[in-house]
Design a protein that fits this description.
single chain; alpha/beta; six-stranded parallel sheet; two-stranded parallel sheet; 4 helices; 10 strands; globular; binds zinc ion
């Protein structure tokens, strides 16, 4: 097998939202979301540098349908920064649902980036909140660390992975999505829209088998 990508010291793996609420049994379950965990553990071993993201909402968050009387999950509403899909309550700070999956084993992760903690703004992306202006600080962190390429895996392909990959490009990082290490939700054609967007932004989708061992943690 020929690996397409040899992983080096300027590469970072972003592991997006591998949390209980996004897996079967959770309140915002991504179908078969739990299946990616063993693959992501294996992938992470091929990277010296790994960042985990964690959706981390206060109670009563604007993205929760329960915060809007008469609304139900998966409806879209207009808010100050544009359209917002409403979700079941999920990843509430300090709850079991917000915790990382117990079978996620990446002890060498260097940063846990929490997002979505502003009550009135959602944050799909690890780089910007959904107003597309408020930074999370991740771009500065990655630039200061000297990274050039971001590899992305996790949940959900068509929301938090999508927006994070898009913003990685916007922040002048290369963005490569490891597609078999993601699962999607597919709300109103969001899977197809994500693929189109990735093509237009030259964001590559590859299988995990194309990620080779470069600098590997012992
Ligand atoms: Zn959320």
């Amino acid at each position: 097998m020929t690996d397409t990508f040899t992983i080096g010291d300027r590469d970072v793996l972003l592991v997006v939202d591998i949390q209980n609420d996004f897996c079967p049994g959770g309140s915002l379950s991504v179908p078969r979301g739990d299946e990616v965990v063993p693959l992501i553990n294996d992938l992470a071993g091929r990277f010296s540098h790994v960042v985990l993201t964690q959706d981390w909402h206060p109670r009563g968050h604007l993205s929760f349908a329960s915060s809007h009387p008469g609304k139900t999950p998966y409806q879209t509403i207009e808010v100050s920064y544009g359209s917002q899909v409403l979700w079941p309550d999920h990843c509430v700070q300090g709850t079991a649902g917000a915790a990382f999956r117990k079978d996620l084993k990446i002890p060498h992760a260097e940063l846990v980036l929490r997002k979505g903690y502003s009550r009135k703004i959602d944050s799909y992306s690890a780089f910007y909140e959904n107003d597309r202006r408020t930074h999370t600080g991740l771009a500065g962190y990655l630039h200061e660390r000297g990274f050039a390429r971001t590899f992305l895996a996790g949940l959900a392909f068509d929301f938090c992975v999508r927006y994070s990959a898009e913003d990685a490009r916007r922040e002048d990082f290369e963005a490569i999505v490891i597609e078999d290490a993601c699962r999607g939700i597919d709300v109103d054609g969001s899977m197809a829209a994500t693929r189109e967007l990735f093509t237009s932004l030259r964001i590559r989708c590859i299988p995990a088998s194309e990620v080779g061992d470069g600098l590997v943690n012992p």
